[in-house]
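Hey, I'm writing a tutorial for new members on how sequence and structure tokens pair up, and I'd like a real worked example in the thread rather than a made-up one. If someone can provide the structure for the chain below, I'll link this post from the tutorial.
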Amino acid sequence: MRVVAGTARGIRLQPPSTNETRPISDRAKEALFNILSPKIRGHQFLDLFAGTGGVGIEALSRGACGATFVEQSMKIAEDLRDNLHRTRLVESAVIRQMDVFAFLREAPTPFGVIFVAPPQWVNLWPAALKILDVEPKWLDEVGVIVVQHYPAEYEVLALKNLVECDQRRYGGVQLVFYKPR
């Protein structure tokens, strides 16, 4: 695990100290940011189910003006904090050690990109996306939501305010993109 590009390019990240999280591969992360690059610079990034922070840290390294990381596990949040210090990006980050669904019940703050990558096979990504769909103020004027999951977990969701606009697959990683209607 490393930062692929930007100000922290090449810095190796601390892998998770538990098996509670599954970091995105460097290949999938690089492809993701090639797609997202116009929506990163100068925008806020929200990393839900953040794990050790590889995706949000990549966003900060590539010019996001800030990133909020939501991670419930105390141990994994410590790994995330260590990675932010390693990359010298801690000043631009906010770590919220709490349940993602409790965070989403708070008053929304607009983000340019919301990344949703929960543990596999526990049906959390549809639940998170449905909450985000109900409150469009989570996204700024150019906002996009990206969901990462195992391809066999994919399902079409009936959404009111969001529409699926793209899908990409990289081995065992599927990225599904949603934008406001």
